[in-house]
Amino acid sequence: MSTTHPRRRRSLVVGALAAATLVLGACTNGSSGDGDTSDAIAKSNTDNDKSGDKVVIGFSAPAADHGWMGSITKSAIAQAKEYDDIDLKVAEGTNEVNLQISQVETFINDKVDAIVLLPFDGAAMTSVAQKAMDAGIIVINVDREFDSPFAARTTVLGDNYGMGVSAGTFVCEDAAGKKGLKVAEIAGIDSLPLTQDRSKGFADALKSCGLKVDNRVAAEFTVESGEKAASNLLQAAPKIDYLWNHDDDQGVGVMAAIKNAGRDEFTMIGGAGSANVMRDIKADNTVLKATVVYPSTQAADGIKLARLLVQGKSMSDLAEIEVPRQLKLSAPVVTKENVDTYLPSAFES
Amino acid sequence: MSASLRDPSLTVPAKPPRGDRGGNLGLARNLGLVVALVILCIVGVVTAGDRFASSDNVLTILRLAAVIGVVSIGMTFVITGGGIDLSVGAIVALSSVWATTTGTQAMADNIGWIAMVFSAVLVGTACGAINGVLIAYGRVVPFIATLAMLASARGLAEIIADRKTQIIRNQGFLDFFDAEPLGIPVIVIIFAVVTVAGWFLLNRTTFGRRTFAVGGNPEAARLAGIKVQRHTVYLYALLGLACGIAAVMLMSRTTTGSSTHGTGYELDAIAAVVIGGTLLSGGRGTIVGTLFGVLIFTTLTNVFTLNNLSTSAQAVAKGVIIVIAVLLQQRIANRKT
């Protein structure tokens, strides 16, 4: 169901890098050095943050039932507060598609300038997003993709497949060619395409060094579900060498289950990149040795892009005068060595 | 058969008792609902002005109310008949998944999109009938029987859909339900038809009178010659049918079928029915009250959305409304004796 054209994907790598810089740098880069720019190439548009025309943005996301999702909404609101020309309307977070559709309908009735939408289910929100686009509203799709390329002007995505690849590559490098190691996986909500992408990336990366996932269970991103799934997994697998848990929020429950079972024979890798997991990695006294970042500032980027699009500005640090169609953020691995870089921008579970 | 039901010693009257005891109270309760809705609308107009009172916004409220509304109308019958059903959300999910599988969609392409509608409605009705048989003939407590259905229907939906969202490709289906004859969305028209049909069935037919009798005093109903077990199966099947219709409406709204559809519907529907004035203990039910209950909750959501108010405050407001409604109900129930 991917709606990305390979050609487009290549041309967007630049955009992805730029966005990753935005996310990870937490503030805009100053202009660098004295490049010899010809007249044909415009300078970076660094005036973007200057106040412009009033922009009314509607924002809707799923219920904040875990830290990452809570941080999505919090960061979006905080981002909007940075600009005096943004009027942000925040709809109630919900996991009920019918209700989320009606929120978008309300934004359409209100004739907002842009809608930043993190759908509970991308496919289910496609039709109403299309209606908004047809009504001349700029739609920014965040994290969970619509199933039509026409339903959004720009899509901001975490790299779910890349997350799996990062985690799998970490395992491969750490295993250093040892064979017959047992790898376990605790996934998030299995019905979401993003979970399927993560698992595929993980399996593909492991394959490259002759490993495979021996035990896999799925949880639901919540602490409680993480504890339940991990307890079952630890029962089923008496010996594990590596464990990748997709989500650090459910990871709190996973860690509790590991503690209850008194197990410590394996190395655990987290996912999403919560602050408490990073603190554990820094302390280096648990099975947690790494986590794979999945930026919770995606919606904040959605807000920034919506503002640029409505005001007709281009993205700074790109030669292209139009805001890109898709931004894919990077999924770096956080270990004890680089944890201090990522800790300040991490979210609290 | 139904003549024996005229004997007031055997049954609870179908309408709120008129006369000294309860007549005014019944009026007051329905009036309370109207007042609550009017207050909400005033709050909406004061805080959001034309944005609230526009026809677009009213249609947005009605579209949101339609899906859960149809489920709540069905739920009114089951609760009036002395039962409860926790599996409605799961049945909506299963019906939506069943009606959007590649197999069903291929059939729809061959013989028309009505095949998808039929599948959803049939699956819903079948699930409801299974609930009814377990409860009436298996003597399983409604709470437990429908709890089992909640788990198994959602599980089955996940198996069939392989936990993926199934996208509807049939343009005919989408176009039909997307239409707005006379400016009114098709799903809102369906909701209106279901409400009127439900009101008629409950208040103007033998079936309705039997429902009150079974819910009020099953033993007396049996002695009066009503086949209580069979009627119970009918009630749950009717609710299943409503869930099937709701699934079709949700499919048209989301253009998908998914095992995650219908999450939390059981509590929303029960809450709407209860604040509408239907007694949880059975024997007394009101379709008009349920309609108001659904509209109150949906309007509340809409007013909160228009004013950017927080999730948490809305949940608190919902809880307070439910408690007040139940407290009122208890007073009414006590007066009845």
Could you give the topology of this structure?
The complex is a heterodimer of chains A (349) and B (337).
Chain A: H1 6-25, E1 55-60, H2 67-81, E2 86-90, H3 97-109, E3 114-117, H4 122-134, E4 138-142, E5 154-157, H5 160-175, E6 183-187, H6 193-207, E7 213-218, H7 223-236, E8 242-245, H8 248-261, E9 267-272, H9 275-283, E10 288-293, H10 298-311, E11 326-328, E12 333-335, H11 339-342
Parallel strand pairs in A: 1-2, 1-3, 3-4, 4-5, 5-11, 6-7, 6-8, 8-9, 9-10
Antiparallel strand pairs in A: 10-12
Helix pairs in contact in A: 2-10, 3-4, 5-6, 7-8
Chain B: H1 23-48, H2 50-53, H3 55-80, H4 88-98, H5 102-111, H6 114-136, H7 142-161, E1 166-167, H8 171-178, H9 186-204, H10 206-216, H11 218-223, H12 228-254, E2 256-257, H13 265-275, H14 287-306, H15 311-336
Antiparallel strand pairs in B: 1-2
Helix pairs in contact in B: 1-14, 3-9, 3-10, 3-12, 3-13, 3-14, 4-6, 4-7, 4-12, 5-6, 6-7, 6-12, 9-10, 10-12, 13-14
How would you explain this protein's 3D organization?
The complex is a heterodimer of chains A (349) and B (337). Chain A has 349 residues and is of the alpha/beta class. Chain A has 2 domains: 52-158 and 296-313, 3-Layer(aba) Sandwich (Rossmann fold), CATH 3.40.50.2300; 160-292, Rossmann fold (3-Layer(aba) Sandwich). Chain A contains 11 helices and 12 strands. Chain A has helices at residues 6-25, 67-81, 97-109, 122-134, 160-175, 193-207, 223-236, 248-261, 275-283, 298-311, 339-342, and strands at 55-60, 86-90, 114-117, 138-142, 154-157, 183-187, 213-218, 242-245, 267-272, 288-293, 326-328, 333-335. Chain A has a 6-stranded parallel sheet with strand order 2-1-3-4-5-11, sandwiched between helices. Chain A has a 6-stranded mixed sheet with strand order 7-6-8-9-10-12, with helices on both faces. In chain A, helix 3 runs parallel beside helix 4 and helix 7 (223-236) packs across helix 8. Chain A is elongated, with a radius of gyration of 21 Å. Mean pLDDT of chain A is 86; it is low at 1-40. Chain B is mostly helical and 337 residues long. Chain B has 15 helices and 2 strands. The radius of gyration of chain B is 20 Å and the shape is globular. The two termini of chain B are 27 Å apart. The chains are: A alpha/beta (349), B mainly alpha (337). At the A-B interface, strand 2, helix 3 and helix 4 of A face helix 3, helix 12 and helix 14 of B.
